[in-house]
Design brief:
Number of helices: 19
CATH class of the largest domain: Alpha Beta
Number of domains: 3
Distance between the termini: 64 Å
Shape: globular
Strand content: 5-15%
Strand order of the largest sheet: 1-6-5-2-3-4
Helix content: 40-55%
Structural class: alpha/beta
Largest sheet: 6 strands, mixed
Length: about 425
């Protein structure tokens, strides 16, 4: 008898809460089930914090279930107050629409939307045409203000201030679930644990309006062992878009993770069998580095493909040799910038160059790194703030800069 995918998800650490665990388990044991997850249209790319829902969708799709990805072209006009201390910036409708298109294109790389076995929809299609008074009469009457105010998402905001438009968000999300239940037979909604109240509101609305049975499941809200929010670092978000964050830097995020996170991340962000993950978790000392390399490769392959993952791995092997050209490997996967020979011959200030190419957040940060001995040129420490990068620093593979222990950038010269 094949394993129930629910048990696999639970073993990997994906499940926080369910509306009815036995019902959800039974449902997922008999595919196909149509399920959905919503994504805000507030940026042109998702980041690594969205990987938990994406990975769950992929696991369920592989088990024969049908994923429906919803971008919030309608709900993003309102803004979800869940987990927010202040009201979101109100975006123009055209910006929201463009963001949604970019996110659906990104999700297509993971889920391969074909309109039958996997679907991509925008809730603007049914929310924006709503007649507001009619909506309140038909849908709003099923919502208790007292119960809504008791929800954690709203309680946290009451002292700081909760706008009336945000207060409508739960009704709209619940209506999404009702619409998908009616039109596509969707019977399971999933999301982050901060969405629990909103998802249950949809379950309740389906019961009240249609007399139907639908279920809810949430994922834990992840932080790293150091307490940082998943997908965020001191230097910014870990974007899933290769234009915003190169596959090499994406690979570096995973290989640089805290040792305490490796086993959990292998479970959540790779498709490796649990038996193999258990063996990798058992590695100690210097051998544990192999577990990180496997995590980084597998996680990068899921988002950017095996070719990009192999390229990033080879570039990392090259960069982390003793210098710029001492070890087998390929630097092509490393973030790079092309400069002219004239610029090189004129001499380049390391701090200014580092800030310009994004290796450091600012010239001040680069200068501090140099003073602290944490800035390297072709594997050698830069110790003088007045030092210029010139033609004598050019190797056959370019010029390799490193900020701190992990962040690399390759300078190539044109002409």
């Amino acid at each position: 008898m094949s394993e129930n995918i629910y048990d696999s998800l639970k073993m990997r650490g994906f499940i926080a809460q369910t509306s009815d665990e036995e019902s959800v388990r039974r449902m997922l044991g008999t595919p196909p089930v149509t399920f959905y997850i919503g994504f805000d249209s507030t940026a042109t790319s998702l980041h690594a914090g969205s990987l938990v829902p994406i990975m769950v969708m992929m696991h369920l799709q592989r088990a024969g279930h049908r994923p429906v990805a919803i971008v919030g072209g309608g709900t993003s006009m309102v803004g979800d107050p869940s987990g927010k201390t202040e009201m979101r910036e109100m975006l123009d409708e055209s910006v929201i629409r463009d963001n949604g298109s970019a996110i659906l294109a990104q999700l297509d790389r993971y889920l391969h939307f074909d309109g039958k076995n996997s679907m991509a929809l925008d809730n603007a299609d049914w929310l924006l045409p709503l007649n507001y008074v009619g909506f309140l009469r038909d849908i709003g009457k099923h919502f208790s203000v007292n119960r809504m105010l008791a929800a954690e998402a709203y309680k946290q905001r009451l002292e700081r201030g909760l706008s009336f438009i945000e207060f409508n968000y739960q009704l709209l999300q619940a209506f999404d679930y009702l619409t998908l239940f009616r039109n596509y037979g969707c019977s399971l909604q999933m999301g982050g644990d901060d969405q629990w109240g909103n998802i249950l509101a949809g379950v309740d609305l389906i019961r009240r309006v249609e007399g139907g049975k639908a279920e809810a499941m949430t994922f834990p809200l992840l932080t790293t062992a150091s307490g940082a929010k998943m997908g965020k670092t001191a230097t910014g978000a870990i974007w899933l878009d290769a234009e915003k964050l190169s596959p090499y830097d994406y690979y570096q995020y995973w290989i640089s993770c805290d040792d305490r996170d490796v086993g959990r991340f292998l479970r959540l962000f790779t498709f490796l069998p649990i038996e193999e993950i258990l063996k990798l978790e058992a590695l100690k000392g210097s051998d544990a580095r192999e577990a990180k390399r496997i995590l980084a490769y597998e996680a990068t392959a899921v988002t950017h493909g095996k070719a990009a993952a192999s390229e990033a791995q080879a570039a990392a092997a090259k960069a982390f040799g003793s210098g710029s050209n001492s070890e087998e490997g390929d630097l092509n996967g490393m973030p790079s910038t092309v400069i002219t020979r004239e610029q090189l011959c004129a001499g380049l200030n390391p701090a200014e160059l580092a800030a310009e190419i994004g290796l450091t957040a600012s010239r001040g940060e680069a200068k501090r790194l140099i003073k602290q001995g944490g800035f390297y040129l072709n594997g050698k420490k830069v110790e003088n703030l007045e030092r210029k990068i010139g033609e004598s620093d050019l190797t056959p593979e370019g010029i390799l800069l490193r900020a701190g222990k992990k962040k690399y950038h390759r300078i190539r010269v044109d002409g």
